[in-house]
Amino acid sequence: MSEKNTNAIFPTPLITTIIPTYRRPKLLQQAVRSVLNQTYSHFQVCIYDNASGDETVTVATEIAKEDPRVKYHCHPQNIGAIPNFNYGLKQVTTPFFSFLADDNTLLPHFFEDAINTLNRYPEAVFFAGQTILVNEKGQKIRATLDGWPPGLIFPPEGLLNIWEKGLPTWESVLFRKEVINSVGLLNPSVNGSADQDFIMRIARKHILYISKKPHALFLCHTNSQSVNRDLREVVFSHKKILEQWLQDGGLTEAVKERIRKRWEAFVKKTISSYLCVKCILGNDKETMTIASELMNKEISLSYKPLKALIIAKLANSNRFLKRLVSAFVSWYLQIKYALILLKNRNKNEAQKNSLHDRSAQNRRSGTATA
């Protein structure tokens, strides 16, 4: 295909999607295809391979041959996850950009909806859509923005909402390029929390737009980096983020107190979850030691993490108790998970029925007017 014909089919890109990857060729292919299936075509996909040394290069180059909007770069050696993201950020020349992890996927109307919204609201520096967390069977676990109000969010409410209502997962966020000049690159010192830190820094200074419409799928699986992070690293990276905002002279003491309370709640919930998964269901005794240290240093003793720690110690005291407690906790989590799936199914059905009723009412109103 000639350069002239290529440009006619694929116009100058307005969006760059950054996909850092490392040894996930099959998932990478799904991620890239989800971008290529967008209803808005003015984009390019930039894959940054962190020296995978496997079939990743074959998968990426074959897709790039099929579609010239796909660009592939392989580092000669592994430079680390956050430096790889930052390398991609430094290459952005388009007016808009997005991130996509190699194990997640976009829904078809994300770019179209985001561009239309940002054109309508030029004061917003990013558009955030709903991301749906799914398990390996494709079943919905939860949505990321259920607690957020839709529409324009002004500072510092965006920052507070991230602490109190949850993080807009950046898979379904479209950023204006100027945020890079405004807040800089990702902060490697906060490790796996760099996405939260980056979005918080933007929300502290700028106006955001929140949409409750689903625009991406986040796959929760056993090999996910977010699942396998070390407990101490998770807590300490969030503590660094906390200290940043507690030292912010532009925030009121009331706002700082709200942030401090949410951090303490996060730590308690995180310790409880890690003890349950890694120590009660698993055999990671080191996490139990780390949890004890963190509870003594970072938070006052409270019922939920203390209960989880006692159960974890009890479960690891002998093999019979381990099997008994693990079986009970596993049963409890399966029931809890089944109820979540049932609740989500009922909620989806209710939303469909509501849309059907409104559509029928609109048709009747149109007929009556005619």
Lay out the secondary structure.
Layout: H1 3-9, E1 15-21, H2 25-36, E2 43-49, H3 56-66, E3 70-74, H4 81-90, E4 96-99, E5 105-106, H5 110-120, E6 124-134, E7 140-143, E8 151-153, H6 157-165, E9 173-176, H7 178-183, H8 194-205, E10 207-219, H9 231-246, H10 253-280, H11 285-297, H12 303-315, H13 319-369
Parallel strand pairs: 1-2, 1-4, 2-3, 6-10
Antiparallel strand pairs: 4-9, 5-10, 6-7, 6-9, 8-10
Task: Describe what this molecule looks like in 3D.
- By secondary structure, the protein is α/β, with parallel strands linked by helices.
- It folds into 2 domains: 3-219, Spore Coat Polysaccharide Biosynthesis Protein SpsA, Chain A, CATH 3.90.550.10; 231-317, no CATH class.
- Helix content is 54%, strand content 16%.
- It has 13 helices and 10 strands.
- The chain has helices at residues 3-9, 25-36, 56-66, 81-90, 110-120, 157-165, 178-183, 194-205, 231-246, 253-280, 285-297, 303-315, 319-369; strands at 15-21, 43-49, 70-74, 96-99, 105-106, 124-134, 140-143, 151-153, 173-176, 207-219.
- Strands 1, 2, 3, 4, 5, 6, 7, 8, 9 and 10 form a 10-stranded mixed beta sheet that branches.
- Helix 2 runs parallel beside helix 3 (56-66), helix 9 packs antiparallel against helix 10 and helix 10 (253-280) runs antiparallel to helix 11.
- The protein is globular, with a radius of gyration of 23 Å.
